[in-house]
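User: Mind token order:
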Amino acid sequence: MRDLVEIGMGRTARRTYELDDIDIVPSRRTRSSKEVSTTWQLDAYRFDIPVLAHPTDALVSPLFAIELGKRGGLGVINGEGLWGRHADVEAKLAELVALADSGDVDAPIRKLQELHAAPLQPGLLAAAVARVREAGVTTAVRVSPQNARALTPLLLEAGVDLLVVHGTIISAEHVVHGDSEPLNLKTFISELDVPVVAGGVSDHRTALHLMRTGAAGVVVGYGSTEGATTTGEVLGIGVPMATAIADAAAARRDYLDETGGRYVHVIADGDIATSGDLAKAIACGADAAVLGAPLAVAAEAPGGGWYWPSVAAHPSVPRGSMLPVSFGDRPSLDTVLTGPSDDPFGSLNLVGGLRRSMAKSGYSDLKEFQKVGLTVRA
């Protein structure tokens, strides 16, 4: 039964929970973390770790996508980002980082908007996709609902394996300004030969609607993290992640029953900063998680110790700032993912922490770990 509270005369709201509000309760025999599997499979693609990289230029360059792919994760290139707009992206990012280092908060956002105002060049985007594909790792590209129809043929020709239709908030049908016909995701997906991941969503009904479109995975959350302002200051929209994930997992169960066995993956996107957060997201029902700032500390990330969400570059309503994520020496991607770590707070060895949480709770794989007991802090 939903926990409703009265916020004023005649107005009620649901009580919801952040990942920080809950804890995992071990209740089975423990096991060695070496006996734990973190593998999962999305359509025909198998991954060793339940980690996707947020599609922002601060994090996912073709090289970073390759390096994450070699380690069993999935790097998602922003198909509307700088890698498809500028031939000298590294130089542009260096200018951006120099502005951020100067201490001016607004100048970097103006620079981001300026860089993203350059027209997309199909040849550059195709080359970025081809570079990842030629490295032999799974290739994924993010497009917005507004530009999905226009960009998808180019991406398919370039050889993309997975398409991610991703926006701040997405629904099964998106009305595009100036287009007489809304983007119907069910029709759009049915005409493609590659699996589609769609999101973000935050509630049971929208998650179920997206699952009915034929999406292979649904992204839950708005990518909220320190430095991102989407969920609060700008739009006033947000659902705490523990509740959002659990609701989407319930939609997955309903859809599984409705279809007689079609499983749609739930991918958590937001408020995951440590290995403990990652474990809680899986425990709430996620199959995998999108990570941004936690991965941006890695030496391989192109942001130079800075992180910003992709929505920070919006031309009229930017919803994020540039966040310093690393000072001095930056750890390798291996250290961030699998250690060894010298950080006692869980920001390094993210997958190792997840494995140990699963082992301490007695579970050997991710799907089983979704059944672990949870408590809510008073």
Q: What stands out?
A: Residues 241-259 form the longest helix (19 residues). The chain has 14 helices and 18 strands.
